[in-house]
Amino acid sequence: MVARGRTAPPTLEEVAAFAGVGRGTVSRVINNAPGVRATTRLTVERAIAELGYVPNQAARALAGSRTGAVALVITETERRFFAEPFFSDIVRAVGAGLADTEIQLLLTLVRSEKERQRFVQYARAGRVDGVLLVSVHGSDPLPDLLAELEMPTVLSGRRSSDEPVSYVDSDNVGGARSAVRYLVEAGRRAIATVTGPPDMYVAQCRLRGYEDAMRNAFGEVEASWIAQGDFTEESGRRATAELLERHPELDAVFAASDIMAAGALHTLRAAGRRVPEDVALVGFDDSPLAQHTDPQLTTVRQPVEEMGRAMARVLLEDIDDRSAACRHVILRTELVRRASA
Fold it and tell me: Domain HTH lacI-type, which positions (predicted)?
C-alpha cells in the first residue's frame, strides 16, 4: 500500500513489488512485449493503475534533439574483453555498420553495480541516442533499466527465450547440434562437452544443442559427460581435466567456445592424448584463434561481422521509429571442418 502524504512518484520497483513480480516483467508489460501471461499482465496493469505509475518520458522528449552518439556496452571484465577475439570482432563489425552514418560510437565496460548505475544515469541524462549491449548475463537488470528510460536498446544475444528487448543472435542450438552430429557421424561414441556459464542463455543453448544431438544418437545424456566452463581458456583446461578423470575413455570433446577448446587442447596434449587421433575436438565461434591452434580447430562459425552490422542497423531503426515493435534477428551458423576433428 502507498503511504499517505507521499510526494515522490512511484518507481518501477515499487510496481513490481506491489504486483508480486520482477521488474523485468513490469518492463515487458509497459512496453507491450510478448512473453507475459494474460493473468500476470492484468495484475501488473492493476498495480500500475493503483499506484499511479507513469513511465519515464525522457527518451521521447529527446527524440527531437539527438546527440549523434550511441553506446556499445560490454558487461565483462577487461580480462575477458582483451582475451576473447569475439569482443574485438563485434566492436569492429558494429563500427563498420555505423561507418556510413554521422553517429559517434562510444565504447564502455560495465563491470559492477556501481558502473551499471553510473551508466544508467549517463543514459538518463540524454547523452546517447541508443545502446548496444554485448555479453549480458541472465540476471543483469541493465536492459530493463534502459527499457524503463525508453532508451532504444539492442542486445548481442539474449537473456532468455522470451527476451523483450530487441536483439541479434546466432542459431546456437542448431550450431551445437551440427557439431556433435558431425562427431557422431565420424564414429565418435564417448563425446563430452565443456559448457559456458549457466547464467548466460548462449551457453544454455549450446548445451541444449549438444544434448539434443546426443539423445538422437544414443538416448539419454549422463550429467558426468558435461563439465562447466566460463568461456575462458583456463576453464577449458580445468573442465577437460575433470572430464578425463571421470571418463578416461572419452574420444571427443565439444567446447562451447574456441578459447575453451584451446584450453581443452592443452589439457589433452598434457595427458598424452593425440588430437584428433585419440580425441576429436570441436569449438564454437570460428574466431581467428581457431586457425592458429595446432592442429587447426574444427568449429562452428557464427557470423560476427553480420551480427555487428545487424545490431547497428536494428538500433538505427529503433532510434528512428521508437513506436516500432522490438526486433528479433537470428542468424545461421556453419560448421567449419579443420584438422582437430
Answer: 10-64
